[in-house]
Write a structure and sequence with these properties.
Strand content: 15-25%
Distance between the termini: 52 Å
Number of strands: 18
Number of domains: 2
Radius of gyration: 26 Å
CATH class of the largest domain: Alpha Beta
CATH architecture of the largest domain: 2-Layer Sandwich
Number of helices: 13
Length: about 425
RNA sequence: GGUGGGUUGGCAGAGUGGUCGAAUGCACUGGUCUUGAAAACCAGAGUACCUACAAAGGUACCGGAGGUUCGAAUCCUCCACCCACCGCCA
């Protein structure tokens, strides 16, 4: 959601922003509805003022008839206003966030810009396997039975891959705690308000599973960003000096509606996966430096696993509606011979805060909307894919990254016999 | 799932049809007093929207959505949430 006054005063900026963000909403339509709305509101307000004035004390019997017709007139105008406001709001909520000036303009993923690469791509003395091949051979992933029970894009993880996920969770949680983030376990089913407030509705509604359709609709989260952002909805936070920093762990569900046929082998892209996510509420002055800090934290995490990666500044055609700017971290996958997305670091500025009603008291005493940021700490599935492929050995085993061994009973590798 | 009780401003808590945007207390802000502070006293202070250059004025908001009425925090309907007890249960 954008600031209404900003839209009125800068319609051209919004038009340009819509253009580079591939949003087809006509700003002039919004302004027209806005003008109609304001005119009606004024009219209704003054009629109601007259009615209130007359009704303050007991009106005479002969006056009541005219007051009654005045009341009916107001009701009619209010119905008209409601329909205008519905249309107006429908358009408003489709507007994407204002893009930060450092974001490259582009149509799709080809417009993303690599801003950093880290680590040396490993050389193998043998043809490196893809993770699903390793998973099959070491009996770590069961795709077939996953499909039998739940359909395509579901699987079972088995044996040491399960232990590796638990190790990663422990390690990543400790890592974030040490950085001063508050640990959270969150609800996985949320109401519509939370989905709308974080900006997943209406933009990405087709990505979200809906359940409980007979009663109040509930939605399965696609990321713990949703319950973390909504945690403080309708609150005034104390972030004038220090940001509020959380990390959450949850299972995540995605319909992968537009991804037919993509990444069908292995566990790169499924309907269900686990993830640790960081989420920060801060004031408007700090958000851009915090955005950079959050990226650095995620980089540190990948560096500690010693997996090569690159950082992308995502272009206007490839970022989500709530994002003002987004970095992706792509980890190197030797089996595929390419970098694949493993983390995503966004500054949503005040976009979510406006929808969720989250403010802070500024130093001048005025209440302002907070800025919100989110970043992946560790998407378990893809992190394990990266570990499997980067740490594979000539004998077909997988070495366990040093930092994780303490959580793996001190063992140094995953092999078939385990 | 059943029964009962609740939901009012930052918090506590009055208010069952007519100056109620809402008593009172606490907390908060400014002032007086004081060397300073406390206490005491005085004053102020909610959110959103509309009109206006501004000063200011108006409208809405007492969990949410509808309804009755000239007029609703107060009456009616539906819904959500919270609390207590019972049942079931990881």
């Amino acid at each position: 959601m954008l600031d209404l006054n900003f839209i009125r005063q800068n319609p051209d900026k919004i038009k340009t922003n819509n253009q580079i963000r591939k949003c087809e909403v006509d700003v002039d339509d919004i302004l027209k509805l806005d003008a109609a709305r304001r005119e009606l509101v004024s009219k209704i307000d003054s009629l109601r003022a007259a009615l209130n004035q007359k009704s303050k004390s007991k009106p005479e019997a002969k006056e009541i008839a005219s007051l009654k017709s005045l009341g009916e007139k107001i009701k009619k105008l209010e119905a008209k206003l409601k329909s205008i406001e519905d249309d107006w709001r429908d358009l408003l909520i489709q507007l994407p966030n204002i893009t930060h000036s450092s974001v490259p303009v582009g149509q799709d993923e080809t417009g993303n810009v690599v801003v950093k690469t880290w680590g040396k791509v490993p050389k193998f003395t043998f043809p490196p396997q893809e993770h699903w091949q390793l998973g099959e051979r070491l009996d770590l992933i069961d795709m077939e039975r996953g499909a039998k029970v739940s359909g395509a894009r579901f699987w079972y993880l088995k044996n040491d891959l399960v232990m590796l996920e638990f190790a990663l969770i422990q390690y990543a949680a400790q890592f974030m705690r040490d950085k001063g983030f508050i640990p959270m376990l969150v609800p996985i089913l949320v109401r519509e308000r939370a989905m709308f407030g974080t900006g997943f509705f209406p933009a990405d509604e087709n990505e979200i599973y809906q359940v409980n359709s007979e009663e109040e609709k509930m939605y399965l989260i696609g990321t713990s960003e949703v319950p973390l952002a909504s945690y403080h909805m309708d609150e005034v936070l104390d972030v004038a000096d220090e940001p509020l920093k959380y990390f959450g762990f949850s299972t995540c569900f995605r319909r992968e509606a537009g991804a037919a046929g993509k990444d069908m082998r292995g566990i790169i892209r499924g309907h269900q996966f686990d993830k640790l996510e960081m989420f920060v509420f801060c004031n408007e002055t700090d958000s851009w430096s915090i955005h950079e800090e959050m990226l650095k934290i995620a980089e540190k995490f990948w560096q500690s696993l010693k997996i090569p990666y690159q950082v992308l500044n995502m272009c206007t055609g490839d970022i989500g509606a709530p994002n003002a700017k987004k970095y992706d971290i792509e980890g190197w996958l030797p089996g595929q011979g390419k970098y694949r997305e493993v983390a995503s670091c966004s500054n949503d500025t005040d976009f979510q805060a406006r929808r969720l009603g989250i403010k802070y008291a500024g130093k001048d005493g005025n209440k302002k909307f907070v800025h919100t940021l989110n970043n992946t700490v560790c998407a378990l599935g893809r992190t394990m894919v990266a570990i499997m492929e980067n740490y594979q050995q000539p004998d077909g085993s997988i070495e366990i990254p040093k930092v994780l061994r303490v959580w793996m009973g001190g063992r140094s590798k995953i092999s078939k016999s385990a």
